[in-house]
Design brief:
The protein is an all-alpha fold and 127 residues long. It has a domain at 42-126. It is built from 3 helices and no strands. It has helices spanning 42-57, 64-84, 92-126. α2 runs antiparallel to α3. The longest helix has 35 residues, at 92-126. It is rod-shaped. The termini are far apart.
Length: 127
């Protein structure tokens, strides 16, 4: 039985077989993930910022007299919006923090006004 001899080195088996390149085809990008829209918290956030500002920096130049009532008003308005449309508006804790901060500043300011007024009144009576 006679076996065929292998082809010489560099023969037909050693030549690489090239394939025609496949033209790239365009594929549509995958669909984006569907995220639920986040509720709008802007008024509640501004209310909490003004309430915190009133408590921390409101004593300087009495700027809290402006920011305290604004914090209370925005907080109340935000709570009304959250109650009427809870899917579109959120941030109830932020609104409550704003109302509390503005209210505490105004209560403490009224208390200080009462103390100073009482002191001036008693001093005027003593003279």
């Amino acid at each position: 039985m006679h076996m065929p001899s292998p082809p010489p080195y560099g023969g037909p088996l050693a030549t690489p077989q090239y394939q025609q390149p496949v033209a790239p085809t365009w594929q549509a990008p995958p669909a984006p993930f569907a995220f639920a829209p986040q509720p709008n918290q802007s008024l509640a956030l501004v209310s909490s910022i003004f309430g915190g500002y009133s408590l921390v920096f409101g004593w300087c130049c009495s700027t809290g007299l402006l920011t305290g009532p604004v914090a209370i008003g925005l907080g109340i308005f935000s709570l009304i919006q959250i109650k009427n449309n809870p899917t579109q508006y959120g941030g109830k804790p932020l609104a409550i923090i704003g109302i509390a901060g503005g209210g505490l500043y105004l209560l403490f300011g009224l208390f200080m006004l009462l103390i100073y007024g009482l002191g001036f009144f008693l001093q005027a009576l003593g003279q």
